Amino acid sequence: MSGDGDSKSFAAVNELKKNGNEIIKKQECVGHVQKRMGTRLLRVKTAMKGKVLADGKPLGGKGRLTQERIKRLQRDYGLAIRQNTHSVAAMKRAVWALYFHTLSTKANPQHGLCPKGPDSWCKYNKYQGSEEIYEHPHSLPTAVMEAIKPVFKDLSDTQLLEKCLHGRTQNQNESVNNVIWTRIPKNVFVEINTLHFGVYDAIATYNKGNIVKCAVLQKLGIMTGKFMINAMLSMDNEIQRDAERKQRDCERQARQLRGLKIKLHEDSDSDNPSYGPGFF
Length: 280
Known about the structure:
With 280 residues, this protein is mostly helical. The protein has 11 helices and 2 strands; from the N terminus they run βαβαααααααααα. The protein has helices spanning 9-16, 30-47, 67-82, 88-103, 123-126, 142-155, 158-162, 171-183, 192-208, 212-219, 226-269, and strands spanning 2-3, 27-28.
């Protein structure tokens, strides 16, 4: 079974099977495990507020553990899991490669765990043998990395990573739950028959679209008119158009971001660079 960290279902199923011989293994949602990195780092940052590290500076601040850096580490931790679902050892290696890559500096590069070759995400290893030089723009001070090292130790635990080998999330479950709640709000008490019919309708609509209502009525011997059929088809078409519109918006934003990055790179290489908020 798959579930998030606070799910009570696993304990309930284990209780039902406590007298049987079945072995029930819980698989963690990769998305929820990824979020643990951000949650744990934020917790450390809050606990260290007002304190100084070994280098005499606080944990947070410019060039240290900022909100943006936490988001970046959380994202990269998720990638380390998703890109290595073939092996727990490879997954653990990728997590620690992220740690030491972030710790590395020009004076003390530590990219031994990072993948090698021209296709490597690690630009230090990617540029080896070429004229390109990696300047380590995203490194964090040693004192900061020592402070968050326990988080990496906990989130690279073998037992935890074994539960992520499937590489799946429960986003689909969350999505269908939302469809159910639009019919049966979870804060409103309903009788069991109402609950059953609401779930049946939600699942059927989720899988086949609103047009499935016409097929259900026909199975019950109730003929549907053309106006109802057209209305259900219109609703399904609108959902499809809305999904395609959102996808186009995301693609347009990605293109605009790529264009801005290219322009900033060109400006920084020119003799007369442009200046503006957030450019450098």
